[in-house]
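Action item from last week, closing it out:
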Amino acid sequence: MARTPTLTFDRGTLILHPPPRGKGWMDYATWDDRVEKFRIPAVKYRALVETLQAENTNFLDEAKAFFSLELTSSMQMEPYPHQTEALGAWKLAGRQGVVVLPTAAGKTYLAQMAMEVTPRTTLIVVPTLDLMHQWYAHLVAAFPDAEVGLLGGGSRDKTPILVATYDSAAINAETLGNQYALIIFDECHHLPTDFNRVIAEYAIAPYRLGLSATPERSDGKHADLNILIGPEVYRKRAEELAGKALAEHEVVQIKVKLSQHERQKYNQLIQIRNDFLQQAKISLGSIQGWQKFVQMSARSQSGRRAMLAHREAKEIALGTDGKLRILANLLAKHYPERVLIFTADNATVYRISSEFLIPAITHQTPVKERHEILTKFREGEYKTLIASHVLNEGVDVPAASVAIILSGTGSAREYIQRLGRVLRKGKDNNKQAILYEVVAEDTAEEGTSARRRGIKNNEPQRRREREEKKEKRGNLQVVYGSNPQKSYRAAEQLEFNYFTENKKAQNKDELEE
């Protein structure tokens, strides 16, 4: 009598033995001479099970260790329309995909909604310890009867709902891989790295939700999210949510002229750099050009002088005294509102902190001191706070209404995250937020500013306006799949089953809506 094919989980992969009669499963399998069995990537679990079911193949599924949960939320809020739309789009896409929403648009509550309609063991992956503890506090409040644990920062819990840092989840990917049916990747642009991607690749989770304000990566690896999580299913921009889920906001750019001495020195330094670039036939208009400049700067004295000149010129533009005068004026104008100040480097943070007596947070700030500073800022004891990059991501500061960018990178992600720090309404439905961007005029900083705001230099204004209208067209941006008849109502009726032992048991434990 022929044995029933059995699917088992083995350290981040699947083993299917003995081979089934059908042919569809062969698209996912590779023969492993070491064990003399067929091995399948764990990430292909859902596709494999659906293929076996479609071919009416009886098999034993011993790979899964995830299970149903009783999730009764004690923290219910009326969702914003965009949250309801995003949840519907994700369900319609088979509960696999990426939702792109601006910072402060309620991604955490959207994840809670996804957990409620997909009541299974769940892993939430976050980039920082601060975010891990924020998620933990939210989930404990939302699901008081559920077991919620932590993985990272010294914690090694094994619970049905687990919040882990990317680092810890990657290290433990082989053991976590079959424990969770739903994985939520917060700030999912962190996933497609050589180290982190194993979290998704070693997991059999049939349901996956990616959350990010800016999933795009400069290395192009955001395309891998289609395989690791699923396609982008929904996107909204901050401008579309202003006055609704987010505070009304204004972005003001202030250009500062260099002093005569600064201008003279800046031009001399840029000339030294440009002479070398021209001689070496290097263009800084691309990543490859910059990489070549770095390589050449290590090979010759002239290259090193050019690189040092480039850095000194950049320091002049970033830290011009004119910016500090503008800062003093803005702080006086907005007192006693709570203000966040951002710079590109720690040296400027400490300089401003010392000269203006403003609390500062950098990556060097001890955890307890950082927590104390943020607490006093939220409570209003501190009116102003300055930081470099550490407040870009994952810090909840709804009390702030003014942000001042004195310097930054060309990253659109950084810009959107910094803007998001002041867009959260909190308890003030009439909040008016403002972001000041202070830029040194006629320096490379203007190009950096244009890149982070998505504006191409010398691009005609009309073309930019056409692109903006095109992006705003329609209230929903949803991937519906191949069937044009599908709708949100259809998404409500979809049922998935990954608890199959044989054909007769296919209706067992169907996913609750």
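Closing note: The chain has four domains: 6-62, 81-242, 257-318, 320-453.
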